[in-house]
């Protein structure tokens, strides 16, 4: 596998070779108009916005096999109360993923009043070339989906039908699992078709699909992954078979 210092195609991740076979990995996510401010479109607490924005950036990093080292939180709102709520969500998401001690930098808007919630989270990690989970998909692999695509007001924190960062970590424990891709706004179909294209393969979709493959998955409420036929994924639900790559 040859990896250049570049952004991965259509992924919010950049890999930078720092020495030998070691790579720095940088991933990011942003949220705007999601909170409790006057002009927010989706009305949820800043805490929820902080958790899900942090979650997406972590999932992107973990999905390629990188170990998170630090993150930044760019808060385009006042430090209190919105900033405090966002930061509490970020800290609790890190804790839920077993990353309580990870250091991070924070910036808030202290000069200009804002009428919408806006947050950007960047995660930085490290991985050896041998640890990277990308470019592993092979002809004959089955395409699976973990979680259900949901967006906007459909999304809530304790929904058992959505994926999270810990689910990605559990998938990484299966050596048979090849590529893992968090699904975002372009939906399952877009992610699978792109994976097939970069792998030089084509998709044979199941005749009856159990989820809407064209729907946005919002804050990565589902992930697609590839593995050989016959793999048993225990302890993770819901998992759906979507098709075959050939």
Automatic annotation (TrEMBL):
Short name of any one Pfam family annotated for the protein: AIRS
Top-level taxon of origin: Bacteria
Family annotation (InterPro entries): PurM-like_N, PurM-like_N_sf
Coiled coil: none
Location of the PurM-like N-terminal domain: 12-102
The protein's name: PurM-like N-terminal domain-containing protein
Organism annotation: Fervidicola ferrireducens
């Amino acid at each position: 596998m040859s990896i250049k210092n570049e952004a991965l195609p259509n992924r919010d991740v950049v890999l930078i070779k720092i020495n030998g076979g070691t790579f720095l990995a940088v991933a990011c996510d942003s949220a705007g108009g999601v909170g409790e401010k006057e002009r927010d479109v989706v009305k949820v607490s800043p805490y929820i916005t902080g958790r899900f924005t942090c979650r997406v950036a972590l999932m992107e990093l973990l999905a390629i096999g990188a170990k998170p080292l630090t993150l930044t939180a760019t808060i385009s709102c006042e430090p209190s109360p919105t900033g405090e709520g966002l930061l509490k969500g970020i800290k609790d998401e890190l804790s839920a993923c077993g990353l309580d001690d990870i250091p991070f930098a924070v910036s808030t808007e202290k000069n200009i009043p804002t009428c919408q919630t806006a947050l950007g989270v960047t995660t930085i990690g490290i991985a050896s070339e041998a640890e990277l989970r990308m470019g592993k998909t092979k002809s004959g692999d089955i395409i699976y989906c973990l979680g259900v695509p949901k967006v906007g007001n459909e999304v809530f924190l304790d929904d058992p039908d959505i994926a999270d960062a810990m689910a990605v970590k559990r998938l990484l424990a299966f050596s048979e699992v090849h590529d893992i891709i968090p699904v975002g706004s372009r939906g399952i179909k877009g992610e699978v078709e792109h994976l097939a294209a970069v792998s030089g393969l084509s998709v044979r979709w199941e005749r009856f699909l159990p989820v809407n493959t064209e729907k946005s998955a919002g804050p990565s409420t589902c992930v697609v992954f590839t593995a050989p036929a016959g793999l048993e994924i225990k302890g993770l639900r819901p998992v759906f078979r979507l098709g075959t790559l050939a």
